[in-house]
Amino acid sequence: MNRRRYFRGSLRSHESSSTSDVDPREKIKDCLRKFVAFMCTQVGVGALVVCYTLIGAVGFSRIEAAFNDTTIERVDEIRSNYTSQLWHVARDNNVFNKTAFYLDTNEKLRSFQNEMVIIIKKGYDGRDARQMWTFPAALMFSLSIITMIGYGNLVPRTSWGKFATVVYAVIGIPLYVLYFLNMGEILAGCFKWVYTWLYECSTRKREKLHRRIVVPTTACLWVIGAYVLTGAIMFAEWEKWTYLDSAYFCVTSLCKLGLGDFVPGTASENGNESKLVINFIYILVGLGLVAMCFNLMREEVRVKVEEFREDFRQCLEDTRVKMWECCRRYKNQDC
User: Fold this and answer.
1) Mean pLDDT, contiguous 10-residue spans, the chain (335 residues)
2) What angle (nearest 5°) sits at the alpha carbon of residue 254, between those of residues 256 and 271?
3) Is 228 exposed, middle or buried (0-12, 13-18, 19+ CB in 10 A)?
4) Least crowded by CB within 10 Å, which of 18, 184, 213, 235?
5) Exposed (0-12), middle (13-18) or buried (19+): which is 86, by Cβ within 10 Å?
């Protein structure tokens, strides 16, 4: 007994000493392997996309907020210049010479309008770089890059910002594609389980036997329609848009068209940056629902193709049997 206890004690001490003598670099490598394995899971990919957009928002907001934009000073100078010119027109042409006053005034206003149109086409909207590149706006910009929506209402103006956009898109787009595929599988599995449970509760036991349950396309369309309707009501109340404009924005965003004529949080002067954050969540979840519907519709198409193949094969078999019977009857009649 004493020898056994001594042997066990020595064995435990040897194991503890062997574990304590592990190289710290091996521990770091093991932790990195576990971290990479977790990031390759569905939850890890979703967390990685969110973290990646947060990092992009911080980076773009700091890079572009430091841009020295002289457009506002230029606009103030143009306004002061044309105000002075209009004052001189009013001074030189008295009320008795209305024709000359109207001609000179229209000429000055037309020149002012042309200069302002050129500046507005370059992206001027009355705000400086710090007011434009807030953290929620940069967050929405980062999401529009990796999802390939590209609203176009906010663009980088610095050279470093443009270079960072290219690198960010090259890394972020494959990451979003991975998120799209994984999130589609997760949501499709959950929705199919709920649909199967509801279907089994609403049907008889005889109908359940020998039947493969497939989520129909109409159910997917109902889900997307309800999500678009929710977004349309939400943005119509917040942004004071019409319901048609709100639904138009939701559909173009979820379809990744990104026309940029309607973007939440940009029409108000106070900012309302929280709307951009909610829009970020709405778009990210909505794209996951689109991926879910894509997976479910693909499964239904696959089942329909298999059924069509089986029916076509059965049709060929029935045709062959009928032709064989016809040939046999024809031979019997000849005999």
Assistant:
1) 49 48 70 66 79 92 84 85 84 73 85 87 76 85 89 85 94 90 86 85 62 82 93 89 92 86 64 72 90 87 84 84 78 65
2) 90
3) buried
4) 18
5) middle
* 3-class secondary-structure state, position 92: helix
Burial class (CB in 10 A: 0-12, 13-18, 19+), 160: middle
Structure tokens at 304: 């329909």
Which helix (H) or strand (E) element contains residue 27? helix 24-39
CA distance 266 to 154: 10
Cβ pair 223, 285 in contact under 8 A: no
Q: Which amino acid is at 160?
A: W
Q: How far apart are CA 36 and CA 43, in angstroms?
A: 12
Name the pTM for this structure. Answer: 0.70
Measured between alpha carbons, how far is 216 from 261 in angstroms, rounded to an integer? 34
User: Which residues, 6+ apart, have CB-to-CB distance to 216 below 8 Å?
Assistant: 300
Q: How far apart are CA 235 and CA 245, in angstroms?
A: 9
Q: CA-CA distance, 313 to 308, in Å (whole number)?
A: 8
